[in-house]
Structures
1.
Amino acid sequence: MAVAALLALAVSCKPQEKHAKYVFYFIGDGMGSTHVAAAEAYLAQERGVIGMDPLCFTQFPVMGEAVSCSANHIITDSSAAGTALSTGEKTNNGMLCIAPDSTTQQKSIAYKIHEAGYSVGVMSTTPINHATPAAFFGHNIKRGNYYEIGKELPGTGFEFFAGGGLYHPKGKEGNEEVSLYDMIAEGGYTLAYGYEDFKAKKDADHIVLVQREGSEEICPYALGRPEGALTLSQIVEAAITVLERNPKGFFMMAEGGLIDWTAHSQDLAGTIFETLDFDQAIAIADAFYARHPEETLIVVTADHETGGLALGRRGYDYDLTVIDKIKSASASTDVEKYMNDPQSIDSVNEEARVGWTTYSHSGGPVPVWAKGVGACQFAGRQDNTDIPKKICAAMGVAF
Ligand SMILES: [Zn+2]
């Protein structure tokens, strides 16, 4: 059935003259269609216009949607969704690249593409061993076994990793003898701390970029972000620098991880600014595409929707002017404190007249956008497990 569906799509798509040499795979964690629409409506409202100003990636020529449910729930979590998006196989919520039988390992396309001779990068604004990036290199029956997952990183040989840091570098109890950071350095990786340090170390073959020595944190939220903090845009720039040295080409997965975190808090302002920040990182890939239009594929999707966000809660208007007030105040506001204060969050949602149904994830399909070599395969309805298969097909890598 799945093969027939793929073949049907393939014939409606012009045959690819050549394979994609450079592939960008962007995953907006928790980014449903409405998160994107809220960001676009905010931009339009900034100009005093009713409507939606398109983001970079919403102008991509191909759009589809992907069913996101996991093997055991209609509503997926990030590790099961990450597994589907990285291996083309479903698993149960909470499990990372291990099949529902609890023993069989599932293989991420990052490994397949790397074995085919391409350079590979895995990056996020979360810690590198958090669910979505971890699904591209790790295997564990529990997504929360961060130390065990992190231990797999040096053995991958992937050329570039980046994120806020690494969770549990000395284990859950902090009592492991060897820290993940030491293991990574011993495994032949150069550790770079922040973008300036990366620039000094960029000629190294294998780089792990985090915020600071021993970091266990996420990158700062886009709203109220301190000057000089590590951003997803810088991470994508750094990845291009390292990966494009390989004449064969590259594959990178870059996650906008904090869209999900802000949406779990029902934080409208945070959700909007994280989505805009994710778009800025995609714009860097789009500029790369402009330099290599015959050889580049960009795919943008989400793992699931978070929060059950809706624009409007009574009547025919919502009003995002409150977002500007928060933006102006953000320099003097403790953003994490504000995010975790249900009263201030509720008053913003009330004033903006938007609604949320859950502090968790919701279960509808997620949007998919694509541009470049092989992009037409991503049009229409698909399962989330189809996406990595189509990426391999576009690259000419055996799935
Ligand atoms: Zn997620």
2.
Amino acid sequence: MEISTESLAFSRRARLLAESATMRVSRRAGELKAAGRDIIDLSAGQPDFPSPSVAVEAAREALAAGFTRYTAAAGLPDLRRALADRYAEGFGAPWETDNVIVTVGAKAALFELIQALVDDGDEVVIPSPCWVSFEEQVRFAGGNPITVPMSAADGFTIHAEPLIGAFSDRTRLVLVNSPCNPTGGVIGAADLRRLAEACAERGAILLCDETYERFVYDGVEHAGAAALARDFPVSVVVVGSFSKTYSMTGWRLGWAAGDRRIIRKVLEIQSHATSNPTSFAMVGALAALRQGEPDVQAMLAAFAERRRAVVDALKAIPGVDCRPPAGAFYAFPRVSSYLEDPGEGRGGGSLELAEYLLEEAGVAVVPGVAFGADPHLRLAFACSVEDLETGIQRIGEALGRYGRSR
Ligand SMILES: Cc1ncc(COP(=O)(O)O)c(C=O)c1O
């Protein structure tokens, strides 16, 4: 007899997880597109550029040459070495090959690190709004995410003091994503050092997700946590990704760098979870790291132009408040005036507004509630300036009709 739907039981851990709202909006946008609707997708958190041709060529050659077997579970030694060198040269980090592991995206690096470090009941302090997977990954490990709100008034700049104020005896990790998805907010070098000091004093780990490290604007400097690795060799751990920097999202490659005992533990987990990331993809990533800088610069220039266009267009919509993000490639406008009492029986949350904009305006955006910030929407600038302007114009028109009875 087959298990009935009612008695199919999932684990306690799995029951804690819900599908991410970002995925849900993307899926609905995909369905509407497949049905022939003209949809402008501003929901996807991925650059719309091709991967660097040097990476594509190198991976193609590796594949053709039969580089298709398992590699060491920690990834290609040459790639680990190249990443360690980059941190040593760029930030003075005393890191070598053993201080770096290549992972199946930054997502797997974060997952494995959190599994390695967080026990049942441990607390993980996270500036909020934050990326959708942080809290879920912490819960999956049995930990408690402690989100600490940053302020929209200064562009969601990440400050150390409120985070330190949330420390308790159970604090095990502080998880900082700078530049931040969804807000674009960054942490400054002084705050980062202050946080590292506070973590070290407490025996906590400062885990820095630097997935968007190369995308900062208007002279903002990315404060790389690797610069603290000499002073805090155990307590500072960095996660990075090829996904956004090199527009290689589908290649699924990221890394973690830090104390070699921590990296070793992550490797033990990885050896039972994914084993090595894809062999020939890592060959491509190495080429991107060595020769992909012109591609990064071209993307950065395009994002800077789009950022201006998006912010200007959003600011022109009555009741929408949008500051230029310091980094990443998302605008995070506040739309609360459309959420308070929208009338017509509407629930009034950002999820409902995002669904309305998708159905009515044919524009996919992510509701702020997905990131713990209901008064906001997230718009990725991962399409042409023309599409962005058309999309935002349509949003403006649809917002004008939203809850007419207000
Ligand atoms: C803040 C943040 N960290 C990590 C990731 C995951 O990146 P990857 O594709 O390397 O797994 C994302 C992807 O959206 C992200 O926004």
